[in-house]
Amino acid sequence: MPLHFRNDPLLWAGWLYAQDGMTQNEIAKAMGISRATVNGYLAEARQRGIVTLTMEPARLSEFMIARALKERFRLSDCIVIPDGATGSALVDRLGQAGARVLERLIRPGDTVGIGWGRTMMALARSMSTQRMADLSVVQLTGGMTAPIGFTPELCVSRLATAMGARAVNITAPAIVSSVAVRDILMEEMVLRGQFETARRADKVVFGICSTRPGSSLFETRLVPEGEEAEQTLRHAIGMVAGRFIDNRGAPARGPLDARMIGLTLEEISRIKLRIAVAGGVEKVPAILAALKGHYANVLITDAATAHGILQAEGVPASLNALRGMKRSQVEEGNPMKTKKLINDPKNIIEEMLDGIIKAHPHHVRQLEHSPRSVVSVAEPRKGKVGIVIGGGSGHEPSFVGFVGKGLADGCAVGNVFASPPPDPILECTKAVDTGAGVLYLYGNYAGDVMNFDMAAEMASMEDIEVRTVVTTDDVASAPIDQKEKRRGVAGNFFVFKMAGAAADRMASLDECERIARKANERTFTVGVALSPCSLPQTLRHNFEIGLNEMEIGMGIHGEPGVVREPLRSADEVTDDILERIFAELPAKEGSKVAVLVNSLGSTPLMELYVINRRVHERLARRGIQVHANWVGTYCSSLEMAGMSITLISLDDELTELLDHPCDCAMFRAG
User: Any idea where the DhaK domain is (predicted)?
Assistant: First the structure.
């Protein structure tokens, strides 16, 4: 049975039936059981709510994400545990999952190598008693003296006791005072014998540690203070079994690494079965790097972390739909497929970008070595702050449409509804940097935050100063006292415009950052969805909504809104949206605003102008002047029907920046 079904035949049968569309005879053959047994499994699965017409969404999410990770990183298997609803700590749940997998894989005569850390200790504690013949458990690194409960020695001892196995310790420190001392120790006969045992391991299990401040790495005293440690940590993003790796998964060589005692990454990679057990969104960059380096061929993680890894890689999947949202409309018992004018969905982003470049050759170009990095054709001016934006595709003209003079200098392009990976962000950064620093502007989504942060860290290694402003204009996505959690949606338009104008006027990096934050604080958006969109890869609606329903506050990826109710008239919907904005808009009688009425994809201009008319009426009654007004498609959600209204409260400074000329592929002003 595949490991990701966690030894539950009901889940396996349910998957084959609901997702792979197999008949009961085909399921019986695949599982090696009788048709009658399959019938019994499916009946019990229905009774337990695992299977209805489709798989129960939480189970579906885990398996779909696990399969996507397995395919993406060529893993032998992947196990994704649910996000914590039980209240138990993530490290304990990961340890339990790792123990169950290891118990299934252990064979008589095996030698098992184990790393160190909280997760490894949780795994060892969760192991049921094994009494197989000739088992050995061996350390992968030298020892530690730190007063912590998860040193390599303790992890080996605990696991060996649970398995009734022989414990083989590495009787030397994990890091020594010099390369010469390390070389001498590695020639000692006792140590050579211990390492020979470790190299012959049949299986290894290890955690993955982040090098970010506050991680368990710094509790171990493994990293001494000094220049050598700083040199290593400057390039390292994570640690695998006591060895540092960079963001691409390559060994982070350096003076500190040369003083370490333990299996090398190359030696670990030669062991046949390599199980990584790690989770927590703060570890996503480190886990992603380990997967890129292929140090693990079995991954055990949690759903939130797995989701973050896929988003960081820009995997084109409807990940929001996998996280508990219902599947789409059905017709005659079958899910409806949508119609799109596309070729191979795998090539849709490249073909779209090719079309954009051909349509706007005087505004944008792709970097030859990084085609997902789109920059302005205008040469960067010496001393000008570079503006880099980016996000997932499917929101056109956002984001790539706002690259040009007086706006953004570069844009990193992700897959549909997926963050761009760090590499194209970094390439944009290097392309637009002229020595004055670079400002990142993007919406507040976990994948974007993670990948832009990684790119900023990489840019700092190349001596490029990067600042970040995350947009949070979506009023409906979080209450006002949690504004920092709000999403960035169509209001990006105004933040990009203000910051781009400031940079074009040769403002400093400090000033550009201040202007962007000010614009974001004064920008407010609320949207309404009338019908779903569908991804090119699936041709399935990404959420379900009734034919006569609307949802106020729905996000641009189909994230749930604040209220679903029967469809109302244009004026009533506009009034509802404006009341939510007016509750926070810092604009009094006699003040000025700019207005953006935005289509989410398929709502036509006719309807948008009806909405715009009502916005002006409501503002006029409050004595608020409309200084500028845009109506059209500026931030879409593929073919979703619906619209959003954005207001920005203007003062003299912002008004001047708003009026500053700009000229980009899909927008021109001044």
Answer: 344-667
Rounded to the nearest integer, the mean pLDDT of the chain is 88
Indicate the burial class of 187 (C-beta count within 10 angstroms; 0-12, 13-18, 19 or more): exposed
> What is the three-state SS of 412-439?
EEEEECCCCCHHHHHHHHHHHCCCCCEE
Q: If you ran DSSP here, which 8-state letter would residue 127 be given?
A: P
- Amino acid at site 670: G
pTM of the model: 0.67
- Which residues are CB-contacts of 322 (< 8 A; sequence separation ≥ 6)? 57, 60, 61, 64, 65, 307
List phi, psi (to 5°) of 326. -70, 155
For the chain, what is the total number of helices (H) and then of strands (E)? 22, 27
Active site residues: 395, 557
Nearby residues of 136 by Cβ (< 8 Å), 6 or more positions away? 110, 111, 112, 160, 165, 166, 167, 168, 197
At 137 the three-state DSSP class reads strand
Q: What is the mean pLDDT of residues 84-106?
A: 86
Contact 142, 170 (CB under 8 A): yes
Kind and range of the H or E run holding 597: strand 592-599
Tens digits of residue pLDDT in 478-502 = 999 899 999 999 999 999 999 999 9
* Interatomic CA distance for residues 603 and 631, integer angstroms: 12
The distance of Cα 145 from the centroid of its chain, to the nearest Å, equals 36
What DSSP string runs through 2-39?
A: -GGGTT-HHHHHHHHHHTS---HHHHHHHHTS-HHHHH
Give backbone dihedrals phi and psi of 257, rounded to 5 degrees, phi first.
-60, -35
Task: Report the Cα 40 to chain-centroid distance in Å.
Answer: 39
pLDDT of 413 above 80: yes
Q: For residue 113, list its beta bridge partners.
A: 138, 204
